[in-house]
Specification:
heterodimer, A: 114 residues, mainly beta, seven-stranded mixed β-sheet, four-stranded antiparallel β-sheet, B: 111 residues, six-stranded mixed β-sheet, globular
Chain lengths: 114, 111
């Protein structure tokens, strides 16, 4: 089954404790992206990757890191989480965003930073 | 910069009635527009897209959207709403390496 898998789905952590949210897709997509969803703000892009070893900042990259060492994986790293990073996070992939391919989303990871 | 706006936070419709969820856009050049739906505790699912061609686009679950260039709108429609259509709907526009999403509209369909 074609899917984007995120882990963990739910996480409660404390300020400053490094964490990683993993994302994996099995569709051989070149493009992958991370969004955060906050009430009243819709979805805002954090980082994206057009292909392996190529990553770029989105609209709200501060406090986050990503890597794209393999085509299928695109982990989101919070080196020192803060309460304002409490949010619902979505990973998404596409066969070609440049060619107007639609995005496939994971189920989301709800993060709470205390 | 490209942007979309969804003027209604919530839309309430009775089951069996037609529904419309509104979206307006602001782009330079030709717009590539999308609608996504999010059910509770789920990720977003693609409904339909407009790239070029016919102004009426048909998508999943009986939804359609009308592209109107003069009004810069891309409203989502369905002739007869179902209770199961209740969800959060997002309009989006493509901008370089990403999709830019609207704030979302909560659709509530009552029996």
């Amino acid at each position: 089954e074609a899917q984007v898998t995120q882990n963990p789905r739910y996480l409660i952590t404390v300020t400053g404790k490094k964490l990683t949210v993993t994302c994996s897709q099995n569709m051989n997509h070149e493009y992958m992206s991370w969004y955060r969803q906050d009430p009243g703000l819709g979805l805002r892009q954090i980082y994206y990757s057009m292909n392996v070893e190529v990553t770029d900042k989105g609209d709200v990259p501060e406090g986050y890191k990503v890597s794209r060492k393999e085509k299928r994986n695109f982990p989101l790293i919070l080196e020192s989480p803060s309460p304002n990073q409490t949010s619902l996070y979505f990973c998404a992939s596409s066969d070609s965003i440049a060619n107007t391919g639609e995005l496939f989303f994971g189920e989301g990871s709800r993060l709470t930073v205390l | 910069a490209q942007s979309v706006a969804q003027p209604e936070d919530q839309v309430n419709v009775a089951e069996g009635n037609p529904l419309t969820v509104k979206c307006t856009y602001s782009v330079s050049g030709n717009p590539y527009l999308f609608w996504y739906v999010q059910y509770p505790n789920r990720g977003l699912q693609f409904l339909l897209k407009y790239i070029t061609g016919d102004n009426l686009v048909k998508g999943s679950y009986g939804f359609e959207a009308e592209f109107n260039k003069s009004q810069t709108s891309f409203h989502l429609k369905k002739p007869s709403a179902l209770v199961s259509d209740s969800a959060l709907y997002f309009c989006a526009v493509r901008d370089a390496g990403k999709l830019i999403f609207g704030q979302g509209t909560e659709l509530s369909v009552k029996p």
